[in-house]
Recover the amino acids of this structure.
C-alpha cells in the first residue's frame, strides 16, 4: 500500500488540511516539517484512525474534535485517504502483481461535553477506482491490505519504537513482541493455519477409520489416540495459559519491585525511626550542654574576677593604701587579734594559763577592752587588710587565666555546641522528611504483594514444568500409538482408502512443518543480518577498527542483543546508550519490513531525536534508500527543523514531497507573520526543508538559513 | 576572716538602691522571681549582680549619679553572706576614694557611694540593651570589651 | 498484500516436496498443487471451505489408489 493523499477535517487542530505523499520509487521520502505542538502527532493519529478506526487509538475515549469546539455543538470529523495497493495473486504456482487505486473515508460525529467526546458510530466508505468510475467494496478488504498487527511497525513514533528493547517489559514479553512481529511480517500465520487445518482433517480421517474398521484393536487405538490428542491439546492450551500467566506475573513483579524500590528510596522505616530516636537523645544532650554553658556564663557575670578585670586598678590602689598604713605601723593592731586568739586558746605565748577565771585571763581581757576602745577605726582597717591580702594575691595570678580568657572559652564552647545543634537539627529534619515520604502502609502492602507474586510465579513455574513433562510424556505415548496405529491400519484392508488419505495427509503435514521451520530459520537469520548491517552503518561502528559494538543479532529465543568487543553480548535496554538504542530499534523494524518486502507506508514521528549529525544522516540514508531495486517503499517522516539540521543535503536528494505544518497559536511568540486566524488551527504550506513563507516563517528560521518563498 | 562586726551591724540599715527608671531593666535581665526562663535572655541571676556590674562601670566612667527617685531592692545585711567578695571589694574601693577611709565606719555612706556609682553605670548598660542581640552573649561581649588588661 | 517471504514460501514448499517420496509419477506436483489450493482456501475462508479441503485430501487418496500405491 502507498498513500497518495490525505484530507483531514476537524481532527484535533487539523480543521481542514490536505497532505500529499510521494509515491515515486526513486524519491520515496515525504517530509512533513512541523515544530513541537504543530500537529505531527495529530497527523499520525489521523492517518491511523482513518485506516483502522478508534480501535487502534491508544486511548479510544479521547476526544478527536478540536479542543475549542463548543460543547453541545455537533462536529463532523473525517479523514479521506487515497492510496495505491498492489495485489499479488497465485496463478498456477506463479505470482502476479496488480496495482489498484482506492479511496477510503472514515467519518464520525462528536458532540463534545468537556473531555467527553459523545461520539456517534463511525462510518467507513471504501471505494476502488475503476476505468468506469468507482466501485464500493467491503471495508474488510482493508484489513487484508494492511493487517492490524502491522500497525505498530508501520506507524511509529521515536519513543514507541523502543518497546522491542524496553527495560520496562520483562524478557518474555519483549521476546514475544519480536517473535510476533516477525511472524506477522513473514505471514507465517497462514502456514500455521494450514497446519492446523490438516491436523483437523487427520482427526476426522482417524475417526472414520475407527468407525469403519472391523479390527477392535484398531478401533480402540484410534479412539485412544483421539483421546490423547484431545488431552495434548488441553495440556498445550494450559501450557500457553501458564506461559502467559508467567509473563504477566513477571511484568507485575517487575512493576511491584520498581514501586517498592521507589518507596524504599527514602529509606527503611525502622532504621530511620531508630536513627531519629538516637538523634533526639543526642539533641537532648546538646541542649543540656547549652544550658550548662549558659549557667557558666551567668556565673562569670557574678564572679569576683569580673570586678578585678573592670576596676582592678581602683581596688589595687585601695589595697595599696592599706599596705602603706601597715608599713607605717598604723595597722594592724595585731594585738587585738592576737590577744583575742590567745584568750580563745586559753594559753599565752609565754605559756601562762589564760583559762576563764584566771588572773591572766582577766588581764588580757582588760587589755583587749582598752585596745578596742582606743582605736575602732584602726581595727576596722586591720580587719580589712587581713581580709584583702588573699583576695589581692589571687587577683594577680588568676588560675583560670582571667575573666576575658574564661569568657572567650565559654563563647567557643557555645559556638561548637550550636554547630552540633544545627547539624542535628538538619539531620532530624532530613529524617523526618524521609519518614514522611515513606508510606509504611504502602511499603508493607507492596512487600506482601511481592511475596504473593513470587509464590504465584513459583507455582506457575512448577505447574509449567509439570505440564511440560506431561506433554513430553504424552507426546512419546502418542508417537508410539501412532506407529501402532499405522501398522494396524496397513493390515486392515477395509480401511485402505482412508489409509491412503492418511498417507497423503502425512506428506502434506511434513511439507508444511518443514516449510514453517525453514522460513522461520531462514527469515529470522535474514532479518537478523539485515538489522545488524543497518545498525552498524547507522552508528558508524567498524568492527575491524575495534569499535565497542561488534555486531547485533536476534537470537533463536527472539532476543535482540548487541555484541561487544570482548565477545560479550550486551543487553540493549541497559548496556547501550540512548541514541544507539533508537538506531537499533529502527534497524530492527526496517530490516523486518525490508526482508518481508511488504509495500506499506512507513510513517514515523520524530525519528531523529537524541541523535547527532552523523547518526542522523545515516538513519536517513537507511530509511530512504532501498536495499534492492525490487523492493519498493514509501516513507513519511515528521521532522522538526532541529532534526532536519545537518541532513539537508541527503533530504535534497531523497525527498519526493514535502510540506510544513504550522500552528496559528505560535504567533507572535515563534511566528513572524500574523496568520489572522479566528481560531486555533494547524495550517499546511508547501515549504520544503530549505524554505519558509509568510505562513510558516519563525523567528528562528534565519538561524537555519531558510530561503523565504513568496 | 569576716568583716568588722560594727560595719556588718551597720550594713543592716544600709540599702542597695537603683534609679526607679531602671527598675524594668532589672526585671527584664535578671532571674529574680522567675523560673523556666531562657537564660540567654537574662544575663544576671540576681538583682545585685547587675547592680554590681553597673557599679564597676560607674567606677570606670568615674561618675556618680543621684537620680530623682530611687528604688530599694534589698538590705545590704540580707545579702552579705552570699556576696562577701562584693563587700570586700567595695571596702577596697572606699579606701581608694577616701584616704582617711572614714567612709568605712559609715555603712550608710558607703552604700550611698556604691548606689551612686551603680546609677551612673546603669546609664551605660541601659544603652547597651537597646539592640536585638542575645542579651547574655551581648553582655559577655560588653564586659569583655570593658575589661582592662593588667 | 502478499509478502516477499510468502512468494518465497512457494519455493520452500517445492523444496520440501522434493524431499517427499514420489509415490507415483507426479505425486509431488499433486502435493504442491493441493497445498497451494489449501492455502488459497484458508486465505479466503469462504462458505464450506473446510469441507472442500477434506475433499481434496480424498482426491489425493483416490489418486494413490488408482496409481496402485500400496503401503508396506
Amino acid at each position: 500500500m502507498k498513500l497518495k493523499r490525505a484530507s483531514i477535517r476537524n481532527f484535533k487542530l487539523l480543521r481542514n488540511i490536505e497532505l500529499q505523499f510521494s509515491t515515486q520509487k526513486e524519491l520515496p521520502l515525504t517530509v512533513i516539517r512541523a515544530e513541537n505542538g504543530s500537529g505531527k502527532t495529530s497527523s499520525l493519529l489521523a492517518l491511523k484512525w482513518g485506516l483502522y478506526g478508534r480501535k487502534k487509538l491508544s486511548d479510544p475515549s479521547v476526544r478527536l474534535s478540536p479542543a475549542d469546539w463548543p460543547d453541545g455543538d455537533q462536529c463532523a470529523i473525517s479523514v479521506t485517504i487515497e492510496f495505491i495497493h498492489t495485489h499479488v495473486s497465485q496463478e498456477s504456482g506463479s505470482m502476479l502483481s496488480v496495482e489498484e487505486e482506492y479511496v477510503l473515508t472514515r467519518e464520525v460525529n462528536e458532540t463534545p461535553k468537556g473531555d467527553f467526546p459523545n461520539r456517534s458510530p463511525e462510518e467507513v466508505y471504501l471505494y476502488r477506482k475503476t476505468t468506469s468510475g468507482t466501485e464500493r467494496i467491503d471495508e474488510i478488504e482493508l484489513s487484508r491490505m494492511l493487517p492490524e498487527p502491522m500497525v505498530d511497525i508501520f506507524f511509529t513514533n521515536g519513543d514507541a519504537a523502543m518497546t522491542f528493547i524496553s527495560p520496562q517489559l520483562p524478557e518474555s514479553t519483549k521476546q514475544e513482541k519480536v517473535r510476533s512481529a516477525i511472524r506477522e511480517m513473514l505471514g507465517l500465520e497462514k502456514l500455521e493455519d494450514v497446519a492446523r487445518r490438516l491436523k483437523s482433517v487427520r482427526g476426522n480421517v482417524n475417526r472414520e477409520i475407527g468407525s469403519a474398521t472391523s479390527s477392535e484393536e484398531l478401533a480402540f487405538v484410534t479412539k485412544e489416540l483421539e483421546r490423547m490428542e484431545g488431552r495434548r491439546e488441553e495440556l498445550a492450551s494450559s501450557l500457553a495459559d501458564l506461559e502467559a500467566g508467567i509473563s504477566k506475573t513477571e511484568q507485575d513483579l517487575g512493576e511491584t519491585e520498581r514501586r517498592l524500590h521507589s518507596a524504599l528510596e527514602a529509606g527503611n522505616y525502622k532504621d530511620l525511626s531508630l536513627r531519629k530516636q538516637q538523634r533526639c537523645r543526642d539533641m537532648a544532650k546538646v541542649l543540656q550542654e547549652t544550658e550548662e554553658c549558659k549557667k557558666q556564663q551567668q556565673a562569670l557575670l557574678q564572679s569576683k574576677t569580673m570586678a578585678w578585670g573592670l576596676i582592678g586598678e581602683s581596688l589595687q590602689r585601695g589595697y595599696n593604701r592599706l599596705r602603706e598604713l601597715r608599713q607605717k605601723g598604723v595597722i594592724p593592731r595585731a594585738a587585738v587579734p592576737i590577744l583575742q586568739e590567745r584568750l580563745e586558746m586559753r594559753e599565752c605565748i609565754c605559756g601562762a594559763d589564760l583559762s576563764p577565771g584566771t588572773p591572766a585571763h582577766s588581764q588580757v581581757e582588760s587589755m583587749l577592752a582598752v585596745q578596742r576602745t582606743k582605736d575602732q577605726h584602726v581595727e576596722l582597717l586591720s580587719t580589712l587588710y587581713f581580709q584583702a591580702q588573699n583576695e589581692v594575691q589571687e587577683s594577680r595570678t588568676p588560675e583560670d587565666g582571667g575573666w576575658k580568657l574564661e569568657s572567650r572559652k565559654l563563647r567557643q564552647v557555645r559556638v561548637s555546641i550550636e554547630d552540633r545543634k544545627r547539624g542535628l537539627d538538619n539531620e532530624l529534619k532530613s529524617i523526618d522528611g524521609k519518614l514522611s515520604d515513606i508510606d509504611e502502609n504502602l511499603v508493607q502492602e507492596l512487600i506482601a504483594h511481592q511475596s504473593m507474586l513470587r509464590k504465584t510465579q513459583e507455582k506457575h513455574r512448577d505447574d509449567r514444568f509439570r505440564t511440560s513433562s506431561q506433554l513430553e510424556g504424552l507426546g512419546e505415548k502418542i508417537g508410539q500409538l501412532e506407529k501402532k496405529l499405522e501398522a494396524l491400519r496397513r493390515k486392515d484392508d477395509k480401511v485402505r482408502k482412508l489409509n491412503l488419505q492418511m498417507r497423503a495427509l502425512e506428506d502434506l503435514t511434513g511439507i508444511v512443518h518443514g516449510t514453517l521451520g525453514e522460513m522461520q530459520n531462514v527469515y529470522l537469520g535474514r532479518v537478523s543480518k539485515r538489522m545488524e548491517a543497518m545498525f552498524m552503518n547507522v552508528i558508524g561502528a567498524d568492527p575491524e577498527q575495534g569499535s565497542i559494538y561488534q555486531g547485533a543479532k536476534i537470537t533463536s529465543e527472539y532476543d535482540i542483543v548487541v555484541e561487544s568487543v570482548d565477545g560479550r553480548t550486551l543487553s540493549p535496554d541497559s548496556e547501550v546508550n540512548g541514541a544507539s538504542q533508537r538506531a537499533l530499534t529502527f534497524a530492527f523494524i526496517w530490516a523486518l519490513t525490508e526482508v518481508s518486502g511488504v509495500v506499506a507506508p512507513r510513517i514515523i514521528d520524530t525519528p531523529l531525536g537524541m541523535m547527532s549529525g552523523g547518526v542522523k544522516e545515516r538513519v536517513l540514508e537507511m530509511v530512504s534508500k532501498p536495499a534492492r531495486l525490487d523492493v519498493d517503499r514509501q516513507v513519511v517522516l515528521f521532522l522538526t527543523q532541529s532534526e532536519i539540521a545537518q541532513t539537508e543535503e541527503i533530504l535534497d536528494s531523497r525527498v519526493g514531497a514535502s510540506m510544513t505544518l504550522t500552528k496559528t497559536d505560535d504567533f507572535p511568540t515563534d511566528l513572524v507573520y500574523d496568520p489572522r486566524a479566528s481560531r486555533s488551527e494547524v495550517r499546511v504550506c508547501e515549504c520544503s526543508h530549505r524554505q519558509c513563507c509568510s505562513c510558516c516563517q519563525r523567528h528562528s528560521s534565519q538561524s537555519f538559513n531558510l530561503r523565504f518563498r513568496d | 576572716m569576716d568583716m568588722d562586726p560594727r560595719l556588718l551591724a551597720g550594713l543592716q540599715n544600709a540599702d542597695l538602691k537603683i534609679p526607679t527608671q531602671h527598675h524594668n531593666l532589672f526585671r527584664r535581665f535578671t532571674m529574680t522571681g522567675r523560673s523556666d526562663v531562657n537564660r540567654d535572655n537574662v544575663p544576671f541571676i540576681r538583682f545585685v549582680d547587675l547592680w554590681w556590674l553597673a557599679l564597676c562601670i560607674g567606677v570606670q566612667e568615674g561618675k556618680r549619679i543621684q537620680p530623682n527617685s530611687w528604688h530599694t531592692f534589698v538590705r545590704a545585711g540580707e545579702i552579705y553572706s552570699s556576696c562577701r567578695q562584693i563587700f570586700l571589694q567595695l571596702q577596697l574601693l572606699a579606701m581608694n576614694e577616701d584616704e582617711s577611709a572614714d567612709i568605712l565606719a559609715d555603712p550608710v555612706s558607703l552604700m550611698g557611694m556604691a548606689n551612686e556609682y551603680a546609677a551612673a553605670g546603669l546609664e551605660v548598660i541601659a544603652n547597651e540593651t537597646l539592640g536585638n542581640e542575645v542579651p547574655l552573649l551581648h553582655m559577655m561581649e560588653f564586659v569583655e570589651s570593658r575589661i582592662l588588661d593588667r | 498484500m502478499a509478502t516477499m517471504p510468502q512468494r518465497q514460501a512457494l519455493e520452500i514448499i517445492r523444496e520440501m516436496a522434493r524431499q517427499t517420496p514420489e509415490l507415483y509419477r507426479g505425486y509431488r506436483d499433486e502435493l504442491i498443487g493441493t497445498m497451494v489450493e489449501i492455502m488459497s482456501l484458508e486465505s479466503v475462508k469462504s462458505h464450506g471451505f473446510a469441507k472442500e479441503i477434506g475433499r481434496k485430501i480424498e482426491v489425493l487418496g483416490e489418486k494413490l489408489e488408482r496409481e496402485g500405491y500400496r503401503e508396506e
Q: What stands out?
A: Chain A touches chain C through 56 residues (CB under 8 Å). Chain A has a mean pLDDT of 85.
